[in-house]
Amino acid sequence: MATKKLSLKQKYSHLTRGLDWEPSYQKADDIFPYAKYEGIKIHDWDAWEDPFKLTMDSYWKFQAEKERKLYAVIESMAQNNGQLGITDARYLNAVKLFIQGITPLEYQAHRHFAHLARHLPGAGLRVAAQMQSIDELRHCQTQIHTISHYNKFFDGMHDFSHMHDRLWYLSVPKSFFDDATSAGPFEFLTSISFAFEYVLTNLVFVPFMSGAAYNGDMATVTFGFSAQSDESRHMTLGLEAVRFLLEQDESNVPIVQHWIDKWFWRGYRLLSLVSMMMDYMLPKKVMSWSEAWEIYYEEAGGALFADLARYGIREPKYSDVAKAEKDHISHQVWSIFYNYSHAAAVHTWDIDDEHMAWMREKYPASFEAIYQPRYLEWREQAKNGQRFYNNGLPQLCQVCQIPMAFTEPDDPSKICFRVSEYEGDKYHTCSDGCKDIFDYEPVKYVQAWLPVHQIFQGNCGGATMPEVLDWCHIKQGADNLDYAGSPEEEMWNRWMEGRRSPPPAFAVAAE
């Protein structure tokens, strides 16, 4: 008789649950030392359900097909001078921000999900973590390969991984992931797979990929689409991980709620960089940050937390503050970068009248009254040859590490400033959210590597700005400063003038 073919569920069960074993001569706590110290209680590891039930043989087939399509697009872009198809060279600053701040995080995620694949006791969860580890490594590689084409022509991307470890604004994403990877396994799953991947990931990938499409960067769109099916699995992993923890024991609920509160706020502060990209760095706009927040968090997140209410989970603490800040946060972050673009590997520029009109339309309650006068003053200074750069070093938040420039939720004229004390020292944070995170485990955050502090201590190449820039591998006058007058602007204008000029006439020799 012919052997009966296994169903997908049976096959998946044999390829996951069947891989586990009961230890005999070693203690389970010694084999899985990280499983209990967070206080999480798991009674049945086999209760874990992977919604996709993807086996490794199917996984490699799916990924190979996506690779084939992606690299065909990359090759086509290189052969057809795809860099000429973008709307404007200013758009590339969004790509620079992506490869400097996000791509290295993909590699960190790859490494830590591999760590979970070894240290989680449940076989099904280990297999899911292993697949996500491979996904994250692939995302890192495809992003680098795609963006490497732009690195041939544009500045600021030549040493992104080195910059990620040293540059002041890149300490924001780096500290986010350092915080997550130094936590326990379940907090890491909640921070990355749930709070970031499920709750907030659409606010990263949708704006970046839609922005790329609107601005003619089809190669970046393609690697985004190539990663999107993986992101769908990652989102379901995050949601299943939270549900799994909540269903195992009632005592897990307050622990998970605390993690959701913490990582929502940390992720939200990280996304302030994306808010600036959306509102300021795209020559052709997709939507405003305020609109994106309403769609991808307020509507989608509201439905999610309404569903999780049956477990005793509420909406994250301070989500109301995030809603109140949606009319301000992108303008405040752009102002930080405008002040300090002489110390950054991206360009900023003065806002023209068309852009201001768009801002007034999208932010009727805040832009014209609060931010437009500031931009008009800076534009006038630049016109008079006195483009403003802030030569002082800013105070940084001890937790999110962003310069202290955010305002009080109910008063946009007053800087939000919080102080905590620990063992006789004072520590400054930018918000009630960051202060709560610091106060809950100060011993962790007093160790933060704050770029400004390190510069003052002489640990960043020297005491002068040129020495610090050299230590960060920033090419002075090329990677930094204003876009106006930069080598990129000059090169772009030369390319565009060459496209507008008529082809040269060829003389016909007289017979």
Description:
This protein is mainly α. The chain has a single domain, classed as Ribonucleotide Reductase, subunit A. It has helices at residues 8-16, 28-31, 56-79, 92-101, 103-119, 123-151, 160-166, 171-181, 185-200, 202-214, 218-248, 252-270, 272-281, 289-308, 319-325, 329-340, 353-362, 367-383, 432-440, 442-445, 451-456, 465-471, 487-500; strands at residues 407-408, 411-415, 418-422, 425-429. The strands form two sheets. A two-stranded antiparallel sheet has the order 1-2. A hairpin with a 2-residue loop joins strand 1 and strand 2 (411-415). Helix 6 runs antiparallel to helix 11, helix 9 packs across helix 12 (252-270) and helix 10 (202-214) runs antiparallel to helix 11. The relative contact order is 0.10. Residues 507-511 have low confidence and may be disordered.
Question: In short, what is this structure?
Answer:
The chain has helices at 8-16, 28-31, 56-79, 92-101, 103-119, 123-151, 160-166, 171-181, 185-200, 202-214, 218-248, 252-270, 272-281, 289-308, 319-325, 329-340, 353-362, 367-383, 432-440, 442-445, 451-456, 465-471, 487-500; strands at residues 407-408, 411-415, 418-422, 425-429.
